[in-house]
Amino acid sequence: MLNGKCVVLGVTGSIAAYKTANLASMLVKLNCDVHVIMTQNAANFITPVTFETITRNKCLIDTFDRNFQFHVAHVSLAQKADLFMIAPASANIVGKIANGIADDMLSTTVMATKAPCFIAPAMNTNMYDNPIVQSNINKLKQFGYHIIEPDCGFLACRDIGKGKLPPESTLLDYILKEIAYPKDLKGKKILVTAGPTQESIDPVRFISNHSTGKMGFSIARQAMLRGADVILIKGNTSFSPPPFVQVIDVVSAADMFLAVKKYYKECNIIIKSAAVADYRPSHISDEKIKKKSDDMSIALTRTDDILEYLGKNRSEGQYICGFSMETENMIENSRSKLIKKNLDMIVANNLKQDGAGFAGDTNIITMITQDTQKQLPLLSKDEAADQILTFISEMIK
């Protein structure tokens, strides 16, 4: 994912420095070229050898290191970096950068880079709340530095409050969002629906389906990574939605319908991948529930068809994509839905195919429009999501 990308990690004197070693390892596994610059104080918490073993690059500490290649190292790395991240960032380094002080290898290199720079403060909560530190952080924001807010929790000093370095996965998310993909969807607003809906039968039971939301989450994540502003309307799922997207939680099909109607007009692209429970119970009296609470032959009525509504009420220039899960006559049934619901595109898959069902990490899809039909091989859901987004971006150019 990060082939050909260079990330420079700055490490300062904090017990949280061990997390940066994990972050470096995660980046290397994504084929990123990782370089680490440490302050002298950081070496009291973690050794340069740790980073050199992980990255296979020399870890820099001394600005005037004579055992290094013959070039100005701080300028060389500053120019090479696609992204610069200081994590953990002490109050000292925050103050230095904010006030233009460059007296060690890390502060000097930061001053020389034009790459996007992310700073993740980590310190005692009282130090973090100090108005001088907050003033320096605000100054950095004004200069265009990206500040990653620290977490709240139990700190190494035994205080409880704000000041923890966020998990390595969170730091990685910021890096991926910035440099993993070209921003070909920048300026686009995309509405994605994902996951199952639930229709209550009584206070205990509900009707739902086997959807997990994975495909919709992959679409939302890949769209975000490619620069889109994403609204994700999701049913009840068992895992976390992607970061950096606006998440709207819903329960029933009616909830999802209302949420879609609220947000769809402001979006350029709408992708409905949610597996909505197609039926909801009709009115059931309390007497019937008490008399026969185990009766599953309850009268059902059709839910509102979200895609059909969107097709009839689309705004000018909107691109609408639906999903069609079939067990037979996949192409014919999907094309019929495409025409009936006035969609621009429908993504079809056959639940009987291995690798294409609910809950898995793969999918086999066919993208269908009025004039085209493109079948894809077995792909991961992230890869399938990318193919869908690329297809749509080419159609709306």
Structure summary, number of beta strands: 21
- Can you summarize the main beta sheet? 8 strands, mixed
Question: Which structural class best describes the helix and strand composition?
Answer: alpha/beta
What share of residues is helical? Answer: 25-40%
| Beta-strand proportion | 15-25%
Radius of gyration of CA atoms, rounded to a whole number: 26 Å
Unreliable residue runs: 284-296
Span between termini? 25 Å
- Total of DSSP H or I helical runs spanning 4+ residues: 14
The geometry reads as elongated
The strands making up the biggest β-sheet line up spatially as: 12-11-8-13-16-17-19-20
Mean pLDDT: 88
What does this 3D model show about the protein?
This protein is an alpha/beta fold. It contains 14 helices and 21 strands. The strands form 6 sheets. An 8-stranded mixed sheet has the order 12-11-8-13-16-17-19-20, with helices on both faces. A 5-stranded parallel sheet has the order 2-1-3-4-5, with helices on both faces. The chain has a two-stranded antiparallel sheet with strand order 6-7. Strand 16, helix 13 and strand 17 form a beta-alpha-beta unit.
